[in-house]
Input
Amino acid sequence: MTTPFEGDVYKTGSKQILVTRDPIYVHPAVTKQGNYIGRQPHDYLPLAICVTVLNPLLGPIAILFAFKSSKSFTDGDIIYATKWSNYAFLTSMLVIVTSCLAYVALAFALSGPELRGGHSY
Output
């Protein structure tokens, strides 16, 4: 276990402030205010980008939610980061299902009568 040097600890009226670059004390799960907020929830940004390629009209909504999740975690709000992460995943799944159904319906609408059950005499 590493102990801080006396020069790295500043004492104020009620708190001690530790200023160091030691990897034991500096951790990405600690915000700028020094509060432990835990692990970052998955933001689903790669999934949102793939969804945007699949459907360029609705896909950017998933990207927006993914960015809001990352921004909320950076601000130290783990609850909203999780909420926006869930919204990004749900939006991505809905866009995938909706796009697949729309593309299948469009394919049947543009196909000839032999695929729609029509007769070709």
User: Anything to note?
Assistant: The mean pLDDT is 78. The chain is about 50% helix and 5% strand.
